[in-house]
């Protein structure tokens, strides 16, 4: 895709639109010396080199990759206008686009037309909003989440002043259903957070089974799909359908388009199955809501000012890569195929051991050491990551995840338990290019052992 061409088109269209309102003289206070601009820009470009190559498949560390060119062009097109999606007065066009993409996301999860939702600046804020509604509905009851859930849930419970209850996990890092039921029997929990795709291991928690248990105790269910939510597109083909189909019956769901949705940062989303929860947001502003009787997005959001450009970037992307298995789903499927194939290669490897079978696009593994103990594995995993990242030639970028002694014992009892736990190597293969680069990546990791 010729990004330069489409950026030029966006700039040209912006100039045509602004010309319709007549010319004016920019204020002198905004003028800068071209030479100074050039010097400052050169310094910026030089400083931006101090980044890891998130765009390249040799970067297989964290959940980072550049946005799709369509997202860049869509975002820039709206950013030049700088609409604010808090109120229709601040961004009528991008507010309409936001409603359209939120409707698309709701349909992907099986929500009906009467859902409520909006984009947010992050998955953290999206989860905060879901837990804010949970507190409003059950002010005297807390929130349960698995010990492998993202740390944002514990943090947001603190922000909201409600009690958080970590729940033990099973042998593959999913919420333990028996432990959950014992907690629910206490009556202390009003909402259960379930994660179809944990951020450390990519484990798919059993949404359908959690939902069954929670409903028996009058508890709401919130789905944290910030990382894994878009894998709904692969349900029934690449993935078992039950956990994903159950999201349609859950009370709320979060998803991050700035992860698998190919968007720049600043684009999360929260959706509620029951639109009546909007009553917990409603407020009035004496100067903001005046051009339309329609509900403004700011009336159903904890955030005020939000970039309308985020909606434009996502809208344009979904016009080209729709929320179908053949559209955006194929981008996710490529990364998952890479993860599954790498797991197969690692199983046959003499130098590496697979820590856990990948379910999505995260692969966890560790070096085989002599002696094979937790302390030796920990040191070797850290050394491989550091050596690979700092190699002056042919660097490779991995990450590590910390696994407890008990987690290792459940998966690899052959590893000597001489420490409380160990770091294992972790690779996120969320760029579809990882599929073709996999053999090179594997060979480079082996060379670091």
What does this structure look like?
This protein is an alpha/beta fold and 449 residues long. 39% of the residues lie in helices and 13% in strands. It is built from 14 helices and eleven strands. It has helices at residues 3-19, 34-47, 69-79, 92-108, 123-137, 152-160, 177-184, 207-216, 242-245, 308-320, 328-347, 374-390, 405-411, 434-447; strands at 116-120, 142-146, 164-167, 189-194, 220-225, 252-255, 268-272, 352-356, 362-367, 399-404, 421-428. Strands 1-7-6-5-4-2-3 form a seven-stranded mixed β-sheet, with helices on both faces. Strand 5, helix 9 and strand 6 (252-255) form a beta-alpha-beta unit. The protein is globular, with a radius of gyration of 24 Å. Mean pLDDT is 95; it is low at 285-293.
